[in-house]
Amino acid sequence: MAAESELQNSREKNRRDTECSVVISQEKVTNQPVIFNPDFFVERLKHEHPQAFTDLVLSHITRLIDLPGDEFAQLIGEAEPKLPTHSGFMRSFNFLKRKDKGVVFGAPLTEEGIAQIYQLIEFLSKNLHVEGLFRVPGHSLRQAALREMLNAGAEIDLETGDFHPNDAATLLKAYLGELPEPLLMHRHYHAHLKIGALTRFDDKGNKTDVPDKERQVEVLQLLFMLLPAANRSLLKLLLELLYHTARNQHANKMSAINLATMFAPHILWPKNVMASDLQGNIEKLNNAIAFLIRHAQKLFKAPTYIKEYARLYYTGSKALQSKDDLTLCAGSKNESVGGVADCTLSSPMTTEAGLTCTVRSSETQSYTEAALRELYQQLNNMPESATKKKLIRQFEKQPLPMPPLDSQMPFNRKHRRSRSFGGIIK
Fold first, then answer.
1. Cβ–Cβ under 8 Å, residues 283 and 268
2. Distance (Å, rounded) from C-alpha 300 to C-alpha 336?
3. Given Cys at both, which of 69, 183, 288, 358 links 416, Cβ 3.0 to 4.6 Å?
């Protein structure tokens, strides 16, 4: 019961996290705030300018991980993924087996199929206490009956006691394993391996063995934004379920790495391969899925700079959004030099007294922007080295002014490696 209550509270929190109150009137704050989805402009940009959005995301992915030309071509779909394969009887048998596919099992991923499978996910979320969940197999006859009902599109009452949680867990893994393509997609396979290898740099710009978790989360956020809508929807539901399953490992004995061992073959491994075909990458793949489970609640949010870019593109507003920025702006009011910046009181915006920074000298701003672009050009012309990568990462953290989306140069898909989105705006 405690696990069910915790999961319900998490769902309520997630719903609250997708809303924020923005007061845009200069009058007294009312009890009817404007509800605003912080990812609204991101979704709008993705819908109205899909190619430009994809190029924007890709430019940041290639800034964070090294993807050689062939792997980058696979990521954007311009080349067939080069994956480990297994030839022989096993491959032929699996191919024949997938010919006998139903409406849900063995069929391509659709929203209708997700709606059917969600019945299993919802049932399992209420039974997180079951020991060995996802590890202990269910009863074959009950599973066959449940599979037939799901394939028929039936609405099933799983609370009657006719089916055990292990039946639903086994069928969920079977559904994922029988998808024509892994949930995380073949074209993203090499990117996931690269993400798992990201480590921190020391003060001299040399790589260490310490995982760079912040950068791993950032790349995954970007990568998941490239997933088809159905894949992203099901992945979010699945990872939320596995996250709460791992949080109840004191009862079910299933930690994140245990769950990853169960699910990596179904959602990340290339199809039609055996363990011996993965050339020592099994541990890396398992660790990659375990990382997704542990950080599930962070991975489906757009990075701050993507949200800010989309907001600026549609609103043209440079109003400060965070409390830290407001404090910084208030502090600079008395410290500004040469009349570069001035902070004035404005309409309240999520705080009792909002602040807006206005630029007094456009000439100074233009000179600064030109100098930043020139500096960035010089960095890009430096020979490839760990020091260069460190400097570019530090430079990318600074907010650069962005031109209108339509005026940007198109993303060069033929280039072996995109340096950063800064290269687009030069």
1. no
2. 38
3. 69
What CA–CA distance (Å, rounded) separates 265 from 182? 9
How far apart, in whole angstroms, are the C-alpha atoms of residue 93 and residue 63? Answer: 42
Strand partners, 111: none
- Give the CA diameter of the chain: 80
User: What distance in Å separates the CA atoms of residue 397 and residue 303, rounded to the nearest whole number?
Assistant: 12
C-alpha atoms less than 13 angstroms from C-alpha of 198 in its C-beta half-sphere: 24
pLDDT for 325-335, tens place per residue? Answer: 445 445 444 44
Rounded Cα distance, 99 and 301, in Å: 37
Provide the 3-class DSSP secondary structure of residue 274: coil
Q: What is the pLDDT of residues 76-121, one digit of tens each?
A: 888 787 777 654 433 333 433 443 456 799 999 999 999 999 999 9
| Model pTM above 0.70 | no
CA gap 45, 313 in Å, rounded: 9
Encoded tokens for 240: 């939320």
E strand map for 311-420: 341-345, 355-359
- The CB density around residue 277, as the number of other CB atoms within 10 Å, is 16
Other C-beta atoms within 10 Å of 359: how many? 13
Burial class (CB in 10 A: 0-12, 13-18, 19+), 414: exposed
